[in-house]
Amino acid sequence: MIANNSRTRRTVKKESFMQGVLALMFSQVFIKLLGYVYRCYLTNREGFGDDGNAIYSAGYNIYALLLTISSIGVPNAVSKLISERITLGDSKGAHRIFKIALATFSVIGLMGTLFLLLGAKKLSAMMGMPEAEMVLVVLSPSLFFVAICSVFRGFFNGQSKIKVTANSQSLEQVFKTVFTIVAVELVVVFSGLNTRIMAAGATVATTLSTMMSFFYLYIYYKLHRKEKLVENPVRIKSGIASKPVMQIVKAILWVSIPMSLSAILTSLNRNIDSFTVIRLLQKYLPYEEARAQYGILSGKVELLTGLPLAFNVAFSTALVPAIAAAKANRDLSKGVKRISFSLLTTIVIVLPCVVGMVVFADPILKLIFPNAPDGAYIMQICVLATIFTAMEQTINGALQGLGKIFVPAAALTIGVLLKLILNLILVPIPVEVFPLGGVVGAAFATDICHLTAFYIVYNVLKRTVRLKTSFSKMIFKPLVASGMMAVVSYGAYMLLNSIIAPKLATIIALVVAVIVYAISIFVLKIFSEEDMLMLPFGSKLYAFLTKIGIYKQK
């Protein structure tokens, strides 16, 4: 007994909330940037373009929907359950949850793989795009590997080791970028400029990269599996160790299914476009042109407008275990401060991105997709959804941590139904007849979808906890800062555009926008002293701003 008590153990070093957020934020931005690299390559590659994007995106959206069903809600669900057990000092229970979740989702992932593999032909026919069949076949094995990876990531997130998740995702995207380019070039060498086969070749990279991510997580787990968290028998109120396996499986599914529903509905939102846009556009456009229009929306616009969400997903991911731990520890006031800070930071990060994409839509598309720059108006409409989606993501993370796991799914269900109705009404109307018709109508429908979902979840959150928010701090000041940024940067662009090359003028103007906005944030004092201290290196930054007179010395 004495020997057991005196045995030395390696303990897990926990990250702070903002350390985890920062690690995941950098990872997500890195992933998005690499995503731009290979999508820009594909879009500008001879033989691919908007047609290839349409085939690739149609197949990928079906895959993403099945992926969501089998695994997307899993990391947050597992991290919530693991975090609760660890907070109560139940390390053995946490590991038992992990092992049972791993077995459960291995089976679910294998079922998803078989369904996609055997149903590829029928699914592609249902979309009205039989060219996507090969894409679905090639993607099918990755469903199994992603389901397993999701459990590992949830296990590490629940231990506040979010850097492991960030590293695995970054590694996956590096391999995906490299493999995409290599695979497509090999297809061109052996099969020529066949758009259908090039699209399938591009998706080989997804399967290979998910396998590499799995190997990284598995090796990390094996190397660190002896790490133990200190047991606290006094605080363990309900042991997991003695519960039957099926009871734990039900507990995992009870949390993961509603969390997955939100992601499923987000994926379904994209699949509404996959199933409706091309069919409805064909009422007044030839098939090839309708497919190209859908390719603009799915291949370029959604890619660009999703960049700001890369910053934000870190907050939604980190909030789930943080709020769950605060609730289990009966210290909800600390959790509320993190929610308020996360909402403010979401607005400060995402709002200028949205404004910048509205103002610079055409120059950005010409800069990134010089061989296929169409879609500025579609992008200006579509990017408006980004601010609502970002706020919705952050609030959903808070609600899930608080145990309100069905609310996000219910809110998004209403939004998706509105999206479907608006698609059916607006897309069949040519944009020349009505400014929000055609493929622009699908983008506008996405705006309404996420505005509705955000409105619902925000009101539920306000009724659940007392948020420390104010109109001036959350809305007015960020809008003023974004407006100042837009006026100065666009003025710089117009001036430079007549002197230097348009692409260089765009780059310089965007750099000016970042500098002006950063200065505006601190001049307008959007962040309070308490907020500043929560930022990475916040104490040093606050000391510097106090020294130069922006903040008053206390």
Main traits of this protein?
single chain; 554 residues; mainly alpha; 2 domains; 21 helices; 80% helix; disordered N terminus
Give the helices and strands, then pairings.
Layout: H1 2-6, H2 17-44, H3 49-72, H4 74-87, H5 91-126, H6 133-158, H7 162-191, H8 195-224, H9 245-281, H10 287-305, H11 307-328, H12 332-359, H13 361-368, H14 376-382, H15 384-401, H16 407-426, H17 438-464, H18 471-497, H19 502-523, H20 529-534, H21 538-547
Structural overview:
By secondary structure, the chain is an all-alpha fold. It folds into two domains: 12-230, no CATH class; 269-279 and 294-469, no CATH class. It contains 21 helices and no strands. The chain has helices spanning 2-6, 17-44, 49-72, 74-87, 91-126, 133-158, 162-191, 195-224, 245-281, 287-305, 307-328, 332-359, 361-368, 376-382, 384-401, 407-426, 438-464, 471-497, 502-523, 529-534, 538-547. The termini are far apart.
Largest sheet: none
The figure for the number of domains is 2
Class derived from helix and strand content: mainly alpha
Q: What percent of the residues sit in helical stretches (DSSP H or I)?
A: over 70%
Radius of gyration over C-alpha positions, nearest whole angstrom: 24 Å
Low-confidence stretches: 1-14, 232-237
N-to-C SSE series?
A: HHHHHHHHHHHHHHHHHHHHH
How many strand units?
A: 0
Q: What does the oligomeric state look like here?
A: single chain
- Count of separate DSSP helical elements: 21
Distance between the termini: 54 Å
Percent of sequence in beta strands: under 5%
Task: Give the overall pLDDT as a whole number.
Answer: 81
**Overall 3D shape:** globular
